[in-house]
Amino acid sequence: MTTLVVCLDRNDDVGRKTGLSTPIVGWEAVRALVTDVGLADPEDSGVNALLETLRVAQQLRDENEEVVVAVVSGDRESIVSADRAVAAQIDELVESRGVDSAVVVIDGADDEQLVPIVESRLPVDSVDRVVVRQARDIESTYYLLKQFLGDEELRQTILVPLGLTLLVFPILSSIWSVAEGAAAITTVIGLFLLYKGFNVDDLLTALTIKARESLYAGQISVVTYVVAGGLTLVGLFAGALGVSSLGEPSGLLVRAMQFAFEGVPWIATAALVASAGRLLDELIRDEPLRRSFLNLPFVVVSVGLVVRGFSAYFLQQQDVIEPLTVPGFSIGVLQLSDFAPSPGERLAAYVVVAFVLSIVGVQLTSYLTPPTIDDPDIPERADSD
């Protein structure tokens, strides 16, 4: 088995600096070529590539392998003619030397474009890319930058926003001040980075596909999702109105509690409507109900009660809302007058009702949907054997 150790030179630096024509074959010929190229241009990285070619060939010979050392160059007319010249020389070496595989030595990203040409004619066992130690960082940076510019998706993701930023910033600076223009640009860049970081585009694509499938399948959840979205907007609007109704200056915590107190009932109702739509879809399909679908409404209402209770506690402590008054009633000889619980008692009542409701939901779900082996909500147990 004979291995061809070949140094590739796409731009014909060897012929331009020494006047020799390729292919140059043989140990002594390549070693003499190193001296000629080094004397013509001592700073040329091709000298290191030629020396690496000799080193690899010597290492393979020490391992008792048949080795053919060669240098192949293109021409300077065009890229196509250079690649065709290299292809013709490789064909000549394969035919005349009877090589079975190749080890390719290159010294740059441009020469690496010739590797597929060699692979189409010979099995390539290794590609040895030689980088001069002093220029390793520069060469690697150039190679990575060239790969980056060749990737269409990366260009659209990085270069397009950067170009728009450079174009828009002078316009905003001329209309407003430089600080306001910079603030607007950084805000847009921050939103874009969050958009990409959270894969919002993938989420929107998946949501669009799911919505289209739901529309074609005639699912009730499509209508309930729209209603839930409307109720969510109403909840946000109600929370914003509640915050704006605060007359005197108040702290951030009070404003947040006011927003939650006014908006959470609507948002909880929206979640309840959405979960009801999913539950109805399962019932219409006449499939076994999953425990999570039945338990979700109880969880939503319980969480809504807890959040409402805590927000009411803080607001009542700050005298933002009136105390809750429980009207009196009479049952036979039992008579109770109007009762106004304290903020702590009001919070405790909300929490107790939420716990009771969640326990009732768990028990009711267990009763209506007894667990089975095929239930997807129950994790598989490992075999005891």
Give structural notes.
The chain is an alpha/beta fold and 385 residues long. 64% of the residues lie in helices and 9% in strands. The protein has a 5-stranded mixed β-sheet with strand order 2-3-1-4-5, with helices on both faces. A two-stranded antiparallel ribbon has the order 6-7. Helix 5 links the parallel strand 4 and strand 5. Helix 11 packs antiparallel against helix 12 (291-317) and helix 12 (291-317) runs antiparallel to helix 13. It is elongated. The protein starts with a strand and ends in a 17-residue tail after the last helix.
Give me the secondary-structure topology:
Elements: E1 2-9, H1 13-18, E2 24-25, H2 27-40, H3 46-62, E3 66-73, H4 79-97, E4 101-106, H5 115-119, E5 124-129, H6 136-150, H7 152-175, H8 178-197, H9 200-217, H10 221-244, H11 252-284, H12 291-317, E6 329-331, E7 334-336, H13 343-368
Parallel strand pairs: 1-3, 1-4, 4-5
Antiparallel strand pairs: 2-3, 6-7
Helix pairs in contact: 2-3, 7-8, 10-11, 11-12, 12-13
Question: How far apart are the termini?
Answer: 54 Å
Number of strands: 7
**Largest sheet data:** 5 strands, mixed
Number of domains: 3
Question: What is the rounded Rg?
Answer: 38 Å
The strands making up the biggest β-sheet line up spatially as 2-3-1-4-5
Q: Which ranges are low-confidence, i.e. pLDDT below 50, for 5 or more consecutive residues?
A: 376-385
Derived from helix and strand composition plus strand pairing, the structural class reads alpha/beta
Shape, per Cα inertia axes: elongated
Could you report the average pLDDT, rounded to the nearest whole number?
Answer: 79
Element order, helices and strands? EHEHHEHEHEHHHHHHHEEH
Strand share of the residues? 5-15%
Roughly how much helix do the residues carry, as a percent range? Answer: 55-70%
Number of helices: 13
